[in-house]
Amino acid sequence: MFGIGEFRVQHYEAIHKWYSLVHLALHFLYAQLRCSQQRDDPFISIAQVIEHHRQQQAQAVLMAACEQAITDGNTQGVVKRFILPTRIAA
């Protein structure tokens, strides 16, 4: 039989997992910031690391979309794959 205590344990475990994930992500960002100090153009803040990572992801998606368009010759297939459909509120 499950009582209210089971829900409290689940809630605690969920919070613990969330903080663990955030802690891991923060360490990754600090490691990237630290590694950039050895380059000629180091990052100044974690925000710059995040922005650089987002730019790399956007570039990779754009390159994949362009390569698919060139290979397939079908722009509608590229649109369906890379652009999420929007929902129009009625």
- Secondary structure class reads mainly alpha
Query: What average pLDDT do the residues reach?
Result: 86
How far is the first residue's CA from the last residue's CA?
Answer: 45 Å
| Proportion in helices | over 70%
Which term fits the overall shape? flat
Characterization of this structure:
- With 90 residues, the protein is mostly helical.
- It is built from 3 helices and no strands.
- It is flat and about 50 Å long.
Q: What key attributes describe this structure?
A:
90 residues, single chain, mainly alpha, flat, 3 helices
Summarize, please:
By secondary structure, this protein is mainly alpha-helical. Helix content is 76%, strand content 0%. The protein has helices at residues 4-36, 46-72, 75-82.
Set out the fold topology.
Elements: H1 4-36, H2 46-72, H3 75-82
Helix pairs in contact: 2-3
